[in-house]
Amino acid sequence: MSCYYRRLVADGDAQVFASTDHTRSNWTPEIQHGSPPLALLTKVIEEQLAPGMRIGRLTLDILGAIPVTDLQVRARVERPGNRIALLSAEMSADRPVARVTAWALAASDTADAATDRYPPLVEGPTAPMELHWKDAGGYIDSVQWRPQEQPSAGAAVYWMSPDVGLVDDEPTTALQRLTMVVDSANGVGAAIDPQKFSYMNTDTTVHLHRLPVGSDFALRARGSIGPDGVGVTTAEIFDRDGFVGTSAQALLVQRR
């Protein structure tokens, strides 16, 4: 089965994974796209969750260029608790390259009070792929990209579905499948010409008012660029059942 990572023999307290070509970034093939590392670190965090807890917020911090190589991953519970807990996972390749922190919250029945900020998005006809790096290969080829013909609420909308697994043929949760695509909001909501500028995100933060379901996800994303080389991309996240949560990314913007 095609996947982002292959599990290798553990090294002490570290899980070890070999990166496949599907992780390669659209910016340069020597480094990884942000979504596969976010998904892998989410997986090892989910494996640490206590019963009855679920993730309400994930933050990926990219600590340096993530090489396409063998990686060591360690997870820990930073702040244990029965109602609120903070967990983290770190990825290393001779040095730390990525870290995810997650707030886990105790689940309870609030179905009678549930509200959605936005109505569901309905997928329409697929428009031509307009991403500048649509032929970059690597990670781009691991996802079904379905841009929508009409903007929604003034923002670009892409429906996406991962086409590969995360780790070998190990089970993948819906949250992990979402994290396999959510870092792409930066590209979906691009507000600047990628032939003139690079705009790499330093992080991705995802807030979830409910857990996602299925394998199909939509990002309604928009970017904004400041006057001093810094930008922000924000997005609303949807699955087939409706609104799931939001994401935000800080951007380093540099003239080519």
Notable characteristics:
3 helices, single chain, 14-stranded mixed beta sheet, 256 residues, 14 strands, mainly beta
What's the Cα radius of gyration?
Answer: 18 Å
Overall average pLDDT: 94
Structural class: mainly beta
Percent in strands: 35-45%
**Sheet with most strands:** 14 strands, mixed
The strand count comes to: 14
Shape: globular
The number of helices is 3
What is the share of helical residues?
under 10%
Distance between the termini: 38 Å
Order of helices and strands: EEHEEEEEEEHHEEEEE
Poorly predicted ranges = none
Write the layout of secondary structure elements.
Layout: E1 3-11, E2 14-19, H1 35-46, E3 53-62, E4 70-79, E5 84-92, E6 96-106, E7 143-147, E8 156-162, E9 165-167, H2 174-179, H3 185-188, E10 197-201, E11 203-208, E12 217-225, E13 230-239, E14 242-255
What does this structure look like?
The protein has three helices and 14 strands. The radius of gyration is 18 Å and the shape is globular. β1 (about 5-10) and β2 form a beta hairpin. The chain is about 10% helix and about 45% strand. The protein has about 260 residues and is mainly β.
Give me a quick take on this structure.
Strands 1, 2, 3, 4, 5, 6, 7, 8, 9, 10, 11, 12, 13 and 14 form a 14-stranded mixed sheet that branches. The chain contains 3 helices and 14 strands. With 256 residues, the chain is mostly beta strands.
